[in-house]
Design brief:
Elements: H1 2-23, H2 30-33, H3 50-61, H4 81-86, H5 88-97, H6 109-120
């Protein structure tokens, strides 16, 4: 009997140690890494204009060689309002929600908010 209890001691200690170590893992929280950027944009007070805000952003981050330029090597061409507007739901998913585009890395929160506000505002040609 005493021998069996001695075998359980090291196993119990090892199990407790593993539990403590596994429980000490953490995950990064965006609001801690980027304070102040986790607030949703107020699109009613800061609407995004396609010509002034969205198109320059798309031209500099998306419509670049090897992506969504005139060659459409990225599958879509983003050179004008009609092309961008036709893909706005896909853009919303990949840029705003999943943050998997552009291929060079997610946009900064302020630029994501421009895209988000433009789409939420109806994706107007303004």
């Amino acid at each position: 009997m005493i021998l069996k209890n001695r075998k359980r001691g090291p196993c119990t200690i090892m199990l407790l140690l593993v539990s403590v170590l596994a429980g000490s893992c953490y995950y990064d929280k965006e609001e801690l890494l980027y304070p102040g950027n986790n607030q949703p944009p107020n699109c009613a007070t800061a609407p995004a204009s396609f010509s002034a805000d969205v198109l320059p952003l798309v031209m500099s981050k998306c419509a670049i060689p090897g992506c969504h330029d005139a060659t459409a090597s990225g599958g879509f061409t983003f050179q004008n309002y009609n092309q961008v507007s036709a893909a706005k739901e896909m853009i919303n998913i990949q840029v705003v929600i999943q943050k998997t585009m552009p291929a060079t890395g997610a946009l900064p929160p302020a630029e994501i908010n421009i895209i988000k506000c433009w789409i939420e505002g109806g994706g107007l040609n303004n």
